[in-house]
Specification:
Number of domains: 2
Largest sheet: 6 strands, parallel
Structural class: alpha/beta
Number of strands: 10
CATH architecture of the largest domain: 3-Layer(aba) Sandwich
CATH superfamily of the largest domain: NAD(P)-binding Rossmann-like Domain
Radius of gyration: 22 Å
Shape: globular
Strand content: 5-15%
Strand order of the largest sheet: 3-2-1-4-5-6
Order of helices and strands: EHEHHEHEHEHEHEHEHHHHEHE
Length: 350
């Protein structure tokens, strides 16, 4: 199939390279000319194990291409993925301006039936907004070109994204039309048989629900770790007891100094914003985020209380990214720790 991937960030580049690896013709489009120039020169904008080799192999095989022009990427393509940033607004809701702008620009160029796929993590109702934007743009052009919208949320973990993309445990497709469902099933057939087809709002919410479950597990084990310290219990033993319960399992039960990255913090805030908008209680989401922040504060307090005075001390900080196997510093706990140390007059070696 001929595929256009709008956005060459983490999700877009990894997904585009994996789709090319399965034999599709993929054009990755980004309005950042500098990023496109770097990709065309073989330089990646971030580190992910195995990605550089995957991009190189498919570029050399003439299956993976990069462009900064909609006019080169949209005409004639079968599926257009939207893999764009959805940063938090001041009120914690998602900023959908990048998604809506891309929808408008592709509608100004498209010349054949097109399946438009929301790959970005977006609030419920975004697919309808994308559909409306595309239709309004087509109407302004005075043309009638059929299209369908699909919600296909990603579940990539930084550090193991290629494996997650090539061997997913499930693929979610939120669709309203059988034609679009058939095309997407054909695209993903080489990857996995476990394709879950559902309505679009459910698919949009499912990604947030998954991340909320993971964030809740992390905040639970972190809160239990703090309680263990006060009760004289061993969190490792408690964790082992939980992990051997088949109803619970061992994943996401490692206590630490709080979760970070580009997904869990932002998605928890977005869920809280959605709940507020629809007059739904937010106490559950509030507690998860509160515990996460408290873990960082408690960790620094342990460092501070260890010394009679912290000013003039020099500490070494080993590991800056929010998790191993990535160079991503977004919402990394290390940034909070660095800021607090500097305020206290502590010198750091990173």
């Amino acid at each position: 199939m001929k595929i256009t991937m709008i956005g060459t960030g983490y999700v877009g580049l990894v997904t585009g390279a994996c789709l090319a690896e399965m034999g599709n013709q993929v054009i990755c489009l980004d309005i950042d000319r500098e990023k496109i120039d770097s990709l065309q020169a073989g330089k990646l904008p971030f580190y992910e194990p195995g990605l550089k080799e995957l991009v190189k192999r498919n570029t050399q095989a003439n299956r993976l291409h990069f462009t900064g022009q909609y006019s080169e990427a949209i005409p004639g393509c079968d599926i257009c993925f939207l893999a764009l940033p959805t940063p938090s607004n001041q009120d914690e809701s998602c900023d959908l301006s990048y998604v809506e702008k891309a929808a408008k620009q592709l509608a100004e160029i498209m010349d054949n039936y097109l399946v438009v796929v929301n790959k970005s993590t977006v609030p419920v109702g975004t697919s309808e907004r994308v559909k409306q934007t595309i239709q309004e743009t087509l109407d302004a052009r005075g043309v009638q070109i059929p299209f369908d919208i699909v919600s296909n949320p990603e579940f990539l973990r930084e550090g193991s994204a290629i494996e997650d993309c090539m061997q997913p445990d499930r693929i979610l497709l939120g669709v309203n039309q059988s034609k679009a469902a058939k095309i997407m099933q054909e695209l993903y057939a080489p990857f996995l048989e476990r394709i879950l087809i559902m309505d679009i709002p459910s698919a949009e919410l499912a990604k947030y629900a998954a991340n909320a479950m993971l964030a809740a597990r992390l905040s639970l084990i972190n809160d239990l770790a703090s309680l263990c310290e006060k009760l004289g219990a061993n969190i490792d033993a408690v964790r082992d007891a939980l992990a051997h319960d088949d109803r619970i399992g061992p994943q996401y039960l490692n206590p630490g100094i709080g979760f970070g990255g580009s997904c869990l913090p932002k998605d928890m805030k977005a869920l809280r914003a959605m709940a507020k908008t629809h007059n739904h209680p937010t106490d559950f989401f509030d507690s998860i985020l509160e515990i996460n922040q408290r873990q960082r504060e408690n960790f620094f307090e342990k460092i501070r209380s260890h010394f009679d005075r912290t000013k003039g001390k020099t500490l070494a900080l080993w590991g800056l990214s929010f998790k191993p196997g990535t160079d991503d510093l977004r919402e990394a706990p290390s940034l909070y720790f660095i800021q607090k140390c500097l305020v206290q007059g502590i010198s750091l070696r990173l």
